[in-house]
Amino acid sequence: MSKKQIGILTSGGDCAGLNAAIRAAVHRAHILGWEIYGIIDGTAGLLRDPPEYKKLHPNDFDGNIMRLGGTVLGTTNKGNPFSFPMPDGSQKDISDKIVDGFKSLGLDAVIGIGGDGSFAILKKLAEKGRINMVGIPKTIDNDIGMTETSIGFDTAVAVATEALDRLQPTAASHDRVMVLEVMGRDAGHIALSAGISGGADVILVPEVKYSVEKIAEKIRNVKKSGRNFALVVVSEAVKTPEGDKLVVTYHGGEKRYGGIGHYLSQQIADATGFETRVTVLGHVQRGSSPTYNDRLLASAFGVKAVDLIQEGKFGRMVAWSNRQVVDVAIEDAIAAYQQIDLNGTLMQTARALGISLGD
Ligand code: F6P
C-alpha cells in the first residue's frame, strides 16, 4: 500500500463532535502510515494565497481534543463558490480558485465533514477538479438522508433536553407556560426528540401544520388536570398560522430563522390567559462538549472515512445504519433529505403520550 497524503476539512456550521471525527481520521491515517493535512476554514482556506493548511500529528490529537466543541480546523458556512457573493453585490463563480488551491497541495484524497449543503458544493468541486472525496455527515439538524444520525445531533438534543429540565422548575414556581425555541432549520428533529425527552406538553415542528387554538386547548386541559404550568417546544422554522416564515436579518443581509418563539408566546398568552416566557436556545445547542454518543459516532465515522480512501472508494459518505457504520453514495444522501417521518416511531410516541403537535 503506497503512502498517501490526505486532506481533511470541516464545512458548514460547527457542531459538537467535529474534533472527535478529525482525531479519529488523524489516528487511523497515522496507523496506515499516511500523512494527513487539515485544511483551515473549509473551502475558504483553499481560496487563500497560499492555501491555508497544516500537517496533523496524532500527538496533537489526544483524548482531550474529543472533549472540545467546535472544530480545531475552523469552518465556513458562507457563500456557494459557484455563485459567490462579491463585495459589490454581484455573484461570481470562484470554484476554479478552490480547485486550484486543492490541487496545489498535491493530496491524494480529501475527507469533507459537512451537512447536505456542504456536500452538494464539495461534490461539485470534486467532480470539477477530479478530486477523490469522502464525506462524513455532521449537522445538529439531523436532516441528511441515508444515515440514521449525524455528528452533533445527539449533543444538540441533550442540550435542548437539559434546557427543558431547567425550565420546568421555574415554570412550576411561577405558573407559567415556557416556550423553548430550538434550532433545526427546516427539519423538526431536535424539537421532537428533546420535546419527548424533556417532558414537553406541546411540540411544534415545521412538518406539521398547527393552530393556536389546538395549542391553547392542550394547555387549558393541562390546567384542568390540576397542573399549573406547561412546556412548549417550537422548532425555529415553524411558520405563523398564516404561513409566514419568521427570520432575522444579520449584518451583510444574511438571513436566519428566528422569532417564532416570541410570536407563539404572545399568541398562547392571549388565548389561554397564562403568563408566558420564551427561551431561544440558539447556538448553545452547537457549542458544548460532545455527548458520548457523538464521540462514538464521530470516531467510527473518522476511521471508516480513512478506510474508504484505503479501499479507493470515493464519492461515498459514511453513514450509520442498523448499529453499524456503512457507506452510501454522496448524491443519494443529498437527494434523500430527511425531515421528520410523520408516521415514524417518535411521532407515534409523542401522540401516544398525549403530547400535542398542535394539529
Ligand atoms: O444547520 C445548523 C444550524 O445551526 C441551523 O440549525 C440554524 O438554522 C443555522 O445553522 C444557524 O446558522 P448560523 O450559525 O449561520 O447562525
Content-based structural category = alpha/beta
Q: What's the shape?
A: elongated
Biggest sheet overview: 7 strands, mixed
**What is the average per-residue confidence, as pLDDT, rounded to a whole number?**
97
CATH C-level class of the largest domain: Alpha Beta
What's the helix count? 13
Count of discrete structural domains: 2
Return Rg in Å: 22 Å
Low-confidence stretches are none
| Bound chemical compounds | 6-O-phosphono-beta-D-fructofuranose
Name the CATH architecture of the largest domain.
Answer: 3-Layer(aba) Sandwich
- Strands side by side in the biggest sheet: 3-2-1-6-7-14-15
Order of helices and strands: EHEHEHEEHEHEHEHEHEEEHEHHEEHH
C-alpha end-to-end distance: 58 Å
Name the beta content range: 15-25%
- Binned, the helix content reads 25-40%
CATH fold assignment of the largest domain: Rossmann fold
Q: Count of DSSP E strands?
A: 15
Q: Which helices and strands appear, and what pairs or packs with what?
A:
Elements lengths: L4 E6 L7 H14 L3 E5 L3 H5 L5 E4 L6 H4 L17 E2 L5 E2 L2 H10 L4 E6 L1 H14 L3 E5 L15 H22 L1 E7 L6 H9 L4 E3 L7 H13 L5 E6 L11 E3 L5 E3 L2 H13 L2 E6 L3 H4 L4 H20 L4 E6 L2 E6 H6 L9 H8 L7
Parallel strand pairs: 1-2, 1-6, 6-7, 7-14, 8-10, 8-13, 9-10
Antiparallel strand pairs: 2-3, 4-5, 11-12, 14-15
The structure holds 6-O-phosphono-beta-D-fructofuranose.
